[in-house]
Protein: Periplasmic binding protein domain-containing protein
Organism: Lacrimispora celerecrescens
Amino acid sequence: MKKSTVIKLGTYLLLLGAVFGICYQLYETTGEKAGPKIILIPKKIDESNEFWSSVIAGAQVASKEYNVELSLMAPETETDVEGQNRLILEAAGKRPDAILVSPCSYEETTSSIRQAVNQGVKVVLIDSNINESLSIPLVATDNVEIGRRLGEYMKELLPENPKIGLVGHVKGSSTAIDREKGIREGLGKEAEAIKEVVFCDSIYQEAYDVTLRLLERHPDINIIAGFNEYSSLGAASAVRDLGLKGKVKTFGIDNSVSQIQLLESGVYQALAIQNPFNMGYLGIEEAVKRIEGEKTDLFLNSGSKLVTVGDIFTEENEKLLFPFLGSRATKKEEINSQ
C-alpha cells in the first residue's frame, strides 16, 4: 500500500472517530438513554376490574418516572395457570432486564419462575406469592393481616347464633389461602361458625351464582365475606337481590365503584381496602433497584385498611376509596404505618 494511501486512510479513520465522538457527545447531552426493559405479567388484564387496572396504572406511572420500557403479557383468566407459565418462560426468553409476575397459583407457578431465575432474569413478585423461597422480592398486601382485620370486625357484629359463609376467588392462590387464614384468626373461636367456603375462579357471575347456591344449602347463614373484588361483589349482589340486606351481614375486600355503592347503601358492613396502585408502582421501583444492583427487601407491604359503613366519608378514607391514579405511590414509611 502506498504511503499516501495509508496517510489518507488514517486521516479518514481519525475523522470518522471524531464524528462518532461528537455524535455520542450530542446524544449524551441532548438524547435520552434507553431504559431497562421490564415485562409485567399480572393474573389477567381486565379493564372492568379496578384492582388490576390500578396495578397496571401504578406500574405505568413508575415506568415513566424511571425511564422503563414496560411490556404487558397476561393469561385470559386468573385460573389459567398453564397459560401464565408459558408466558413467564416466553418472557424470560426475550431476555428483559426484569419480570414482574403476579402468580396465578401458589404451587403450580413456582417451576416457571424458578426457570426464569435460573436463566439469570431478575424477577419481582407482586400481589401473590409462591411456595418456594427463591430470594426474590414480593410486593403485596399482607393478606393474613387484611383477612384478620376483616375477621375481627366481623366478630364485633356477629349475631347471637352466627352462621358464616366465605366466598373465595381462586382456590390454591396464595391470596385466597392467606385471607382465609386471616379471617379465621380474626374470628378466633367464632371461626367454628363457618359453614362452608366456596370459590368463583375470580368471575363475578360465578360468585353471584355460588352465593345463591350457598344460601340455598344453608338458609341459616347470616354472615358472608368475600375475598376479592369479583367474589365480594358477586356475593353482596346476591344478598341484595334476594332481599337479605341487613339479615345477612356482608363483608368484602377491594373497592370498585360498585362495591363502594353497596357499602354506602348498607349492603356491606365493611370493606378491607388494598392499595393496588402502590403495588404496581413499588413493583417497578423494586425491579429497577435490583437491575441497578441495590439490595432490596424480600417483602414490601403495599398497605391496607378497613373502611366501615360509618366512616366512608372521612378525608383519609375518601382518598383510599376514590384514588387519583395519576399521583405518586405512597412512601414506604406511610404504607407500613397503616
Observations:
- Residues 37-141+276-302 form a domain with the Rossmann fold fold (CATH 3.40.50.2300).
- The longest strand covers residues 268-274.
- The CA atoms of residues 184 and 191 lie 5 Å apart.
